[in-house]
Amino acid sequence: MSDPDSAEVIAAREDLAEEERLPDYSQIVDNATRGAFRAPGWKVERGSLSHEGSYVVAEGMKAARFSVKIPTTNDYSVYAWWPQAAKSGTARYGVQTASGTKWEEVAQEAGSSGMWVKIGNFAMEEGQRSVQVAARSVRGGQIVADAVAVVRGEAAPPEDQTITASGGRSTTTDSRSLERFSGRDVVRQARRHLGDKYRYATCSRSTKSCTCLTKMAVKPFGHKMPLTESGQWQYDRSRRIDRSNLRPGDEVFFKEGGSNRITHVGIYSGNGRIVHASSYFGKVVEKEMKYIDGYSGAKRFKSR
């Protein structure tokens, strides 16, 4: 990781501090939101874990377009939602930024369905802006458009909760009991702490180390992990998995800087990102995993 006292890190922290001084802002646009969604030639479907009960499937050449309102020129987190029926197509999402449309490839995997998946952080200008979904998949599969969310700054998406098969909404996690839960639930719990301050070897309501965050993310589901990186790697109610099999809710481990021991942990949240308490940013963030060196392994929590 970078020096926490370097000019680059200090500038990043100042940028985040500026965002925090602004009032919270978020918006969700669903495929059924009147006047804010267009998808010429796309077919409407209904299915399990879709947002508000329906979604559209690409059957033409034109992109689907969500129109979002940006209240102030600033940085925004953009999230996407797709249903369980998604057939692992790699979609291209185009976000209208201050410097033009920026395209991001996102695999619409079934394991990431029924939850908000972060596309990225973008500098966006005030006014009506758009998020597009290209009609053609990058690497096979079917492309769907369901819903997008924009949130000012580095914050959790609104309504980070379950959408049932019938389109109903639940204000709790989608676990039926503390003994049965999904990776979606773990990600939602981790995101509740976005913005909390980072401090090494600390575990409090507002300040956390990396192991504190992962411990808190699974505590509601009956898991009682230790506060050390090595202890969490040895934890007997999670099993080791291959990197190629990562799913949202898995715990990921790193040996940074060539260390021979585990130095950092986080919760995988889909699309190559993790939620983690970061010494670089000085807080809990959701960022791309590829910028953390020394990937060491991953574990999936047992639901029973």
Describe this structure in words.
- By secondary structure, the chain is mostly beta strands.
- The protein folds into two domains: 20-152, Jelly Rolls; 175-301, Alpha-Beta Complex (endopeptidase fold (from Nostoc punctiforme)).
- 12% of the residues lie in helices and 35% in strands.
- The protein has helices at residues 7-20, 183-191, 210-218, 229-233; strands spanning 26-30, 37-38, 43-46, 54-57, 64-70, 74-81, 90-97, 100-107, 117-124, 127-133, 144-145, 147-152, 197-198, 207-208, 238-241, 251-254, 264-270, 273-278, 283-288, 295-301.
- Strands 15-20-16-17-18-19 form a six-stranded antiparallel sheet, with helices on one face.
- Strand 18 (273-278) and strand 19 form a beta hairpin.
- The longest helix is centred in the N-terminal third of the chain and has 14 residues, at 7-20.
- The chain starts with 6 loop residues before the first helix and ends with a strand.
